[in-house]
Amino acid sequence: MTNIDFSRIDQVLDGYYPQMERDLMGLLACPSVKAEPAGEGAPFGRGVADALEYALAMSSTLGFQANNVDGYAGYADLPGETEEQIGILAHLDVVPADAKDWDSDPFSPVIVDGKIVARGTLDDKGPLVAAMYGALALADCGIKMNKTVRFIMGCDEESGMSCMTHYLSKYAPPACSFSPDAEFPLIVAEKGVAHYSLSKSWDACQASPCLLSLKSGSVANVVPGEALAELCWPAEKALPELPADISAELAEGKLSVKAVGHAAHASMPEDGENALMKLVRFLNTLELQGGGADFLRSMGALYDDDRYGAGLGIAEETDKGRLTSVPSVLNLDEKGAVLLGDIRFLYEHTEDEIHAMLEKAVAPHGLILGDWLAQNPLYLGEEHPLAQKLLGVYREFTGDMTPPLMIGGGTYAKTFPNCLAFGPEKLGEPNLVHQPNEFITQDNFRELAKIYARAIYALAK
Ligand SMILES: [Zn+2]
Q1: Is 224 within a domain?
Q2: Which residues have CB less than 5 Å away from ligand 1 (the ion)?
Q3: Which of 216, 306, 405, 456 could cross-link to 274 by cystine, CB 3.0-4.6 Å?
Q4: CB within 8 A of 451, min separation 6: which ones?
Q5: How far is the CA of 138 from the centre of ligand 1 (A)?
Q6: What is the pLDDT of residue 1?
Q7: What percent of the chain has pLDDT over 90?
Q8: Residue 342 clears pLDDT 80, i.e. is over it
Q9: Together in a domain, 219 and 184
């Protein structure tokens, strides 16, 4: 088979549109936020298990051969002439959504002004449904493909990817795959990600003024938007002058100091303002006593650059991107502190090398590098045959010649060999992934199915 007439495929997809939208709305109504295990087949809670069962039932109705992989993941096959597989890797779990920040209930999808609004529309339920209908349209038009198309639906993408570890413990990965879970035109490289802890203990300080506590942040992959410290402050001592974004309140010999910044994803620290470091820099001007003050001075030296890792000696920038490093969570009390940080590193280095560099930087300060959870970078590059095929599909369909991208985030592409993230977001378009009022436009949803039909054909023919 050489070329096929895609206008026929597009027509079939236009005909399917109302059904495709209904299927998506049903899937969006499953509140698939990770929760405590809820019995057999629900290792990530009832909401996620419901979404998996819904997606598998939908796949069967569409004629795919569907299977539940112990509640961790599921797959749906469109058999080809051979058993060699191409994979489409999407996830059914979503990040939490606080209803009070939304204009409508995040798990009661609505259509407003041509937008389908609900948690998961873009990340990642919409792309999954669109790709499935893309494959269905190929089959409907009688196009027999050489390879078997396998949709792999994971249930734990947003927090740990144990879904794919479980899947790969039972099945071999497809020969090549794409994951519709990032941006167009195509992601050809993903930075390595490391989350770590630094800790130190000391004896409680008897002198004054000294630091009693400092708390900031809750998860390692977010630039903290707020930081709060409590100081023991002598009654006769004048209050310090306060810079912008810092407030203080004195009550019963204790000075509470608060810094306000701007939260952002740690992979894009330039979008945020680190409140923790704002507070540390201010406190370092106050000549505080004790172990807590020593710890803050170490932080001041190591994280003077709170975005790109200069103080840690790991800064690196190439034409492909820039390493990012964010101190994100601090829990400090009178006797010690634990700091969590996030590093996104370039493919010139392995996680072992970054670990060694970090250890060397913090050792002179008496800090202990403890927890370490890291993934090596992914780099396939634009010349890779898989990249060439997917980029070709996108460029032919849209006429957009934007070069492929390197991102700081991690997708399923890191967990499978020969896999790249392809769509669904478009550069320059507003996107509310992980934010309130997440949506996909009906036009984009319809178009996605057409692009993914072409991508599936290009890989499976
Ligand atoms: Zn996603």
Answers
A1: yes
A2: 123-124, 181
A3: 306
A4: 134, 393, 394, 397, 398, 423
A5: 25
A6: 44
A7: 84
A8: yes
A9: no
DSSP E strands in 60-209: the ranges are 65-69, 73-78, 85-91, 110-112, 115-117, 148-154, 176-179, 182-183, 187-190, 192-201
Quote the domain boundaries for residue 285.
193-375
Separation CA 231–CA 304 (nearest Å) = 22
Can 157 be counted among the known catalytic residues?
A: yes
Q: What is the pLDDT of residue 435?
A: 83
CA 174 to chain centre: 23
CA of 151 to the centre of ligand 1 (A): 15
Q: Average pLDDT, whole number, for the chain?
A: 94
Domain endpoint, select from 343, 375, 407: 375
Q: Of 352, 375, 398, which one is at a domain's C-terminal end?
A: 375
Instruction: Tell me how many degrees the CA angle 60-420-182 measures, rounded to the nearest 5.
Output: 80
- Number of domains present in the structure of the chain: 2
Same domain, 365 and 391: no
Catalytic annotation, pick one of 23, 93, 351, 438: 93
Three-state SS for 123? helix
Helical axes 6-28 vs 46-61, angle rounded to 10°: 150
Residue 44 vs residues 47, 49, 158, 160: alpha-carbon distances, Å: 8, 7, 11, 12
402 shares a domain with 356: no
Say how many Å lie between the CA of residue 412 and the centre of ligand 1: 9
Residue 64: phi and psi, rounded to 5, are -85, 155
Q: What is the pLDDT of residues 282-316, one digit of tens each?
A: 999 999 999 999 999 999 999 999 999 999 999 99
Inter-CA distances, 13 with 25, 415, 446, Å: 17, 31, 8
What's the CA-to-centroid distance between 297 and ligand 1, angstroms? 38
87 shares its domain with 233: no
Active-site entry in 23, 124, 157, 190: 157
Q: Are residues 321 and 345 in the same domain?
A: yes
Residues contacting residue 113 through CB under 8 Å, at least 6 positions apart: none
DSSP state, 172?
P
Cα of 123 from ligand 1 centre, angstroms = 5
Q: Do 417 and 365 have their domain in common?
A: no
Whether 169 maps to a domain, the answer reads yes
- Specify whether 363 is located in the same domain as 425: no
Contact (CB, 8 A) for 80 and 148: yes
CATH code for the domain in which residue 440 is found: 3.40.630.10
Strand 378-379 relative to strand 321-322, pairing: unpaired
pTM (two decimals): 0.83
